[in-house]
């Protein structure tokens, strides 16, 4: 039984990397001043931030079920079944839409996994699925493992500016104004579902300490046994903040010498459009 792996560009896996990995990556669509763009097809990271900081209207959208169906249909000519890993259902309706579509049109052939991941944690889920498929695991076995381990990750994100949280309606103009005056940098978290507030800081060094402390707490408590088994890893993400991301990587490697820092990646654009440039994030997650 051959199983194909499909994901979307929220996994931080580029189209070029997808070809190397032997998987399909569905590009996430964006509406920019009413015109549709597709991530890593006709919209690069550089072009996205140029438009975002230029104060154009940017909104995320779901992939067309027709387009996804075409990908699935083509893959099923070569594979017996498909495991499709979209972004978390807590952050987008894409997962629910594709789940219903698969059950009605591709039942028993396509499994859409609500793995509750995004960006660097989602990327790891895709790599784990590839490894399992290469080992000969069935689509059902891959589905079950991804579902059983879906909450075994944490993401912490420092937001450099309140502008985009205000623009997206996640905070009020008054709160944004006061926060800007006080130079507040919120630290947000994703624990499988929505983007929630974790802490408020004023300095980058303070934000990095709070995020590192949060990782340490998670690794010493709910992930303790998995850490002892060597199954946890760490990754860094950012939005146009490469230099600080590399510095943060070195700091986390020193603090957690028993854990591998697997990646330093740009955050997915679906998250970036809500938090803007200058953000810094870290995550810990299970690995297969």
Short précis:
The chain is α/β, with parallel strands linked by helices and 288 residues long.
Q: How does this structure look, described?
A:
- The chain has 288 residues and is of the alpha/beta class.
- It is 42% helix and 23% strand.
- The protein is built from twelve helices and 13 strands.
- It has helices spanning 15-21, 45-52, 65-75, 94-105, 119-134, 139-148, 163-167, 173-181, 204-220, 224-228, 242-255, 269-275, and strands at 3-8, 24-26, 29-32, 35-38, 58-60, 81-85, 110-112, 153-158, 185-190, 195-201, 232-238, 261-266, 280-286.
- The strands form three sheets. A six-stranded mixed sheet has the order 10-9-8-13-11-12, sandwiched between helices. A four-stranded parallel sheet has the order 2-1-6-7, with helices on both faces. A three-stranded antiparallel sheet has the order 4-3-5, with no helix packed on it.
- The radius of gyration is 19 Å and the shape is globular.
- The two termini are 20 Å apart.
* Strand order, sheet with most strands: 10-9-8-13-11-12
**Percent of sequence in beta strands:** 15-25%
Structural shape: globular
Radius of gyration: 19 Å
Work out the helix count. 12
The percentage helix is 40-55%
How confident is the prediction overall: mean pLDDT? 90
Low-confidence spans: pLDDT under 50, at least 5 residues? 169-179
The quaternary state of the protein chains shown equals single chain
Q: How can the largest sheet be summarized? A: 6 strands, mixed
* N-C termini distance: 20 Å
């Amino acid at each position: 039984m051959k199983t194909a792996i499909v994901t979307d560009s929220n996994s931080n896996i580029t189209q070029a990397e997808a070809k190397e990995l032997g998987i399909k990556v569905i590009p996430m669509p964006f509406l920019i001043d009413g015109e549709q763009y597709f991530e890593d097809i006709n919209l690069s990271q550089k072009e996205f931030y140029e438009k975002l900081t230029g104060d154009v209207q940017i909104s995320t959208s779901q992939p067309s079920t027709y387009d996804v169906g075409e990908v699935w249909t083509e893959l099923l000519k070569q594979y017996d079944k498909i495991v499709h890993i979209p972004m978390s259902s807590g952050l987008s309706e894409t997962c629910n839409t594709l789940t219903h579509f698969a059950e009605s049109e591709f039942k028993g052939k396509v499994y859409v996994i609500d793995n509750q991941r995004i960006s660097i944690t989602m990327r790891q889920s895709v790599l784990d699925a590839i490894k399992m498929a290469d080992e000969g695991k069935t689509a059902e076995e891959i589905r079950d493992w991804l579902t059983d381990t879906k909450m075994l990750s944490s993401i912490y994100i420092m937001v450099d500016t309140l502008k985009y949280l205000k623009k997206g309606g996640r905070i009020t103009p008054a709160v944004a104004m006061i926060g800007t005056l006080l130079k507040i940098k919120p630290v947000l978290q994703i624990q499988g579902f929505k983007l929630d507030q974790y802490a408020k800081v004023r300095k980058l060094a303070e934000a990095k300490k709070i995020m590192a402390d949060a990782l340490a707490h998670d690794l010493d408590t709910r992930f303790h046994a998995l850490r002892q088994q060597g199954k946890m890893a760490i990754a860094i993400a950012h939005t146009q903040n490469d230099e600080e991301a590399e510095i943060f990587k070195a700091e986390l490697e020193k603090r957690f010498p028993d854990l591998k820092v697997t990646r330093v990646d740009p955050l997915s654009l679906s998250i970036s459009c809500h938090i803007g440039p200058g953000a810094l994030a870290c995550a810990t997650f299970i690995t297969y």
